[in-house]
Amino acid sequence: MKNKTFIFSILSLAVVSTLFYAFISNRKPTAPPATSQYMIVTVLETSSAFDGKMIVTATDGTSNTTDLKNYYGGFAAPKNTASNDKIILDELNLLHNQGWDIDKTIGSALSSSTGLSITRYILKKNI
After folding, report:
1. Is 18 inside any structural domain?
2. Model confidence over 16-63: pLDDT tens digits?
3. Which range marks the domain in which residue 53 is found?
4. Residue 118: enclosing H or E segment and its boundaries?
5. How far apart are CA 78 and CA 70, in angstroms?
6. Number of domains making up the chain
7. Does a structural domain hold residue 15?
8. What SS3 class is residue 26?
9. DSSP-assigned beta bridge partners for residue 30
10. Is residue 6 part of a domain?
11. Neighbouring-strand partners of residue 79
12. Nearest Cα to Cα of residue 121 among 85, 92, 81
């Protein structure tokens, strides 16, 4: 009798283990749904003869480029800063009104000899 109970227990354990393994192995892991999207606004500004650019890269990878003026326009005092700031602010305000908020700002000077600087605004939108 003990032998039959032992064999029945082993068979029951084997059946339960097989069913559990079949259930676990058929489950496909799913990624959690995205709760946020990100967009990048890159501002390249220069004090050299070249004009700067503002590049807006959307979530799908497409980009839109807007021309900016250089800082100085020669050796004169800064004259284009206010007009560039207005262009940048207008774009950031437009994106904010569409639900985008600034998540991070990254700035750096790429070259002190040409006065080239880059600022990246990482925008986040909760979905």
Report:
1. no
2. 566 566 666 666 667 677 789 999 999 988 877 778 899 999 999 999
3. 36-126
4. strand 116-126
5. 9
6. 1
7. no
8. helix
9. none
10. no
11. none
12. 92
